[in-house]
Design brief:
This protein has strands spanning 12-13, 136-141, 154-155, 160-168, 175-184, 188-195, 200-205, 209-211, 226-228, 233-241, 248-249, 252-259, 268-273, 286-296, 300-309, 313-322, 325-332, 340-342, 360-361, 366-368, 373-381, 389-390, 397-398, 400-407, 411-413. By secondary structure, the chain is an all-beta fold. It has two domains: 12-263, no CATH class; 268-425, Jelly Rolls (Sandwich).
Length: 426
Amino acid sequence: MRRAIVLVGAMLGLAGCAGSNQSDGMLPDDQMMPQGNVSAPTNAAPTTPATDTSDPNKDMAQAAPTTPPASSMQNTQPPASGSPTQNTPTTPTMPPADPGIPPPVGFKANAMDECGLHTKWPGDEYCILPPPADKGFQLHIGPSNYDNPEPEYVLQPGQEYVHTFTATSANDKDIQFYVRQYRMRPGAHHTIVRDTSTGRRLSGSDVNQDHPVGGITAPENADIGIPLVAHAPISVDHHAINTRDEPLLQEVWVNFWYVDPTKAKETTTLLYDPGDVSATVAPGADVIVGPYECDINTAGRLISMFGHVHANDVRFSAWRTRDGHSDLIYESYHWEDPLWLEFTSLAKNPAADSAKMIDGGWTGILDLKPGDTLKWECHEINTQQNTLVFTNETFNGMMCIIIGDLVGTKCVSRNPNAGFFDPSKE
C-alpha cells in the first residue's frame, strides 16, 4: 500500500459512505478549523466539477490499480519533480495465502469503489463501505453535499493546510480493535486519529492501506487489541496540499474492525520520534539529518513502521542496533510515496537497493531486547530558496519522523530536542 495524497475538509462525520451501513466482503492553532456538519454526503455531482484531465506526471494523478503510487500554507514554490499520486491500496508486504488469523467477517482486502459515487470530483473510487455494525465502525470525513460542498472541504490550487476536527466514536460499548482500513481522496499528506480522553493515537496513515495487509493478522499478533471506550471523544489532524491547477474535494474514510475482547491480551505502543525539531537545512545544502536514536529497555517487537518526511528528503533509513551491530530495517527514497512495512512472520518485504533507489527493509519478525536501539536518519537536499525548518509545509519545511507500532516495549528517545512529542500520551 503505497502513497496517497489527499485532504480533509472541515467537518467530521462518523457515518457510512453514501449513507450505507453494510459491507460485503503542525500548523499553529490559529490555522485549525472548527468542527462542522456530520451528515452523510449525497451522490449529487458538484457544481464545480474537478474531472481529472491533468497530466498524471504533473501532480497527484488518479489511481490506476496496476500503477505504483507517486505525494504550506499557500505553496509559492513549484512542485518537485516527484509529485504525489493516489493509488489503489497495495503493498510490498504481501502475506501468503494460508497462514495467519483470517480477516474479520465482512472485510474486503484492498476494497475500492464500493459506494457508487459519480460526483465528477477526483477520487470517487476511494469510498468504501463501513463494517457491519457488530463488526466495527467507520470514521468518515467529508461534505454534506457533493453538489454544493462546504468551502472547507474544497482545497484550492496551491493551497496547503492542517485541520483538526472533533467527533465522537460510533461504538456504543467499550471495544477492542486492531484491523484498520484507510482511504483518502487526492490531496492528503497524512491523517492522524486520537482519543482525546486518553491522548492515545488510535491510527494514522500517509497512505491508502489495509493494516495489517489484507486484514490478515500474523499468528504472533493474534492477541493484540487496542482499547476504545464507548462514544470516545475523537480528534483528527489532517495535512493536505493541492499541487494541481484545479480544486480538489477532500474526503477520508477510516474503518475500525473489532477484535474479541476476551482474546485481547496485549496492546500496541506507538513508536513516534521526530528527532531534533530544531534542526535546519540551509538553501542549497546537501546534508544528513541525524542519526537519531531511541533505546529499548524491555523485550518486545516492532510490528510495523514508516518514515514521515517532506519534499526535500531523498532518503529515509532506519536500523536496529544490537551488541554494536546495526541491521538495516527500513529504507525509502520516495517522499511522495512513503514505504510502509510490516515486520511479521507473514511479511515478505523487498530488499532495499541504494544503487537503484529501490525501497525495502527487514523481512520477518523484528524482535527487540533490552540494550537495543533504533536509529534513523534523513538525507536532505534543499532545492528551495528558504532555510528548511521543522514545520508542516511540504516543500518549504522538513521532517524526519520515525513512526510505527511496538508490542511489549517502548523506545525511549535520546533526542533532547524532540520538542512537542510526549511519549506518555501514546
